[in-house]
Amino acid sequence: MVSLYDIQVFTPRTLEEALELLDKMGGRTKIIAGGTDLIIQMRHGLAPRRDLINIYGLRELRYIREEHGMVRIGALTTFSEIAASEPIQKHVPFLAEAANTIGSIQIMNKATIGGNLVNASPAADSLPPLYVLDASVKIVGRKGERTVSIERFYKGYKKMDIAPDEILAEISFKIPDTDGRGLFFKHGLRLGDAISVVNGAVWMRRREGVIEDVKISLGAVAPTVVRARRSEEILKGAKPDDENLRQAARAVIHDISPIDDVRGSAGYRAEMAVNYVYMALKRLVMGR
Amino acid sequence: MVNKVKVNLKLNGERFSAEIDPRMLLCDFIRDVAGLTGTHIGCMTGNCGACTVLMNGRTVKSCTILAAQANGSDITTIEGLSKGLELNPIQRAFHKRYAVQCGYCTPGMIITAHYLLSLGKTLSRQEIREHISGNLCRCTGYQNIIDAIEELLRDKGLLR
User: Which end of chain B has fewer CB atoms surrounding its CB within 10 Å, N or C?
Assistant: First the structure.
């Protein structure tokens, strides 16, 4: 266990102040939000010990707004708030479900969606729904702000398109068509506080007996969350019969590259990814 | 050298402030600075839930929070739930149902039970299990803990 004895903590009162602090010492500091991952990683020597800029109290980054057919979530919104949010439950219930499985209630009460995104674990439970929603993240810095699609934001294992003097401020996505349906799944090794062995999300819209549009994402089976594009291609325009669903589920192996770790072997992960995608597709088709 | 930071918060309804090291965790602040040792420290990894306290009315694990992050907030620990030696209804239910074995997880369990009851939701036994999944009992004495919480919910007409 590493002591944090020489660490300094700076607590800006506004986003502007936070950006000024980052501008001055961005490379030498780390931003702390809910801290449920970072504090433990620092104490275990898994994250470099750096001075901290504590943005947890910045209310201006804590909101869920619905406007012009978009949902906007402030980076410091907690998973308890997301899981209980009316617009989220109404438009994207599978994101509410993912928020509910992030961890125990104590973790959900403190952990923020922005923190989950920049912690950049490939097993992060909030990410698969955001991938099928083609969500974007808003990055702010002193020089201005920019918006990046979630897929482009992650460039590799824990590598993100964000500079040391920038803050991830918002996550947004277009409200999906009401005639489609989404689903989140998670395979963990225990019920409470489990880290996913495989997780994912599927969104599907059917019309006149065929699958008109489908999006599939998988987590914990590659250096970043991935879209199972080969499977999506197989299903688009296809009949939702069992053979097509099975073929599409098996095709996820073209888009994943799982590894062995303490929670499971690469082979186990690949098999679980195939099975879970099949079950998710089947559930959507059966309307359950 | 390391600067001190001032932390002002409400602790069990009373104002409390202290100058501390910025890196101090909330659980250490509660125990070593405020001297309230009812909050236990188990794993220090955010897993066991022994250090659960209420922060602005919501349960959090105080080992995953810097005390500096709790500045300006309202913290309730196990000591804040009872009036001196007079136990509150949750503590009485735990007592009655023998929901305590070694007792180490008990303060965290009771804070979690208090939060669960404060939500006013109707819950089943399975949902109670899910609600307390962030609190580990190394004695595995879960049945009596769940019995106690069930009884409290039943008294309020909130047991499914």
Answer: N
One domain, residues A110 and A209: no
Torsion on CA atoms B52, B53, B59, B64, rounded to nearest 10: -60
Tell whether A13 lies on the interface with B, counting CB pairs under 8 A: no
Alpha-carbon distance of A240 to A215, in angstroms, equals 14
Q: Tell me the C-alpha distance between A55 and A40, whole Å.
A: 18
A207 conformational bin, left if phi > 0, alpha if psi -120 to 50, beta if neither:
beta
Q: What architecture is the B5-78 domain classified under in CATH?
A: Roll (3.10)
Chain B nearest-CA distance from A79, in A, is 12
CB contacts of B22 in chain A (<8 Å) are 7-9, 52
B113 CB near a chain A CB, below 8 Å?
A: no
Answer whether B130 touches A (CB < 8 Å): yes
Look at residues B13, B108, B4 and name the one whose alpha carbon lies nearest to residue A106.
B108
Q: Strand pairing of A9-10 and A51-54? A: parallel
| Nearest residue on chain A to B108, alpha-carbon basis | A106
Digit-coded pLDDT (tens) for A175-187: 999 999 999 999 9
CA distance B152 to A264: 40
Instruction: Say if the Cβ atoms of A39 and B65 lie within 8 Å.
Output: yes
On chain B, the residues whose CB falls within 8 A of the CB of A52 are 22, 66
pLDDT digits (tens, 9 = 90+) for A153-165: 999 999 999 999 9
- Using a CB–CB cutoff of 8 Å, tell me whether A46 touches chain B: no
A156 and A88, same structural domain? yes
**What strands lie across the sheet with A210-219, from one edge to the other?**
A180-187, A198-207, A210-219, A226-227
Residues A48 and A81 occupy one common structural domain: no
Residue A218 and residue A281 in one domain: yes
Q: What is the pTM of this model?
A: 0.92
CB-based contact B65 A1, cutoff 8 Å: no
Interface confidence, given as ipTM, is: 0.89
In contact, B146 and B130? CB cutoff 8 Å: no
Residue located via tokens 């929603």: A133
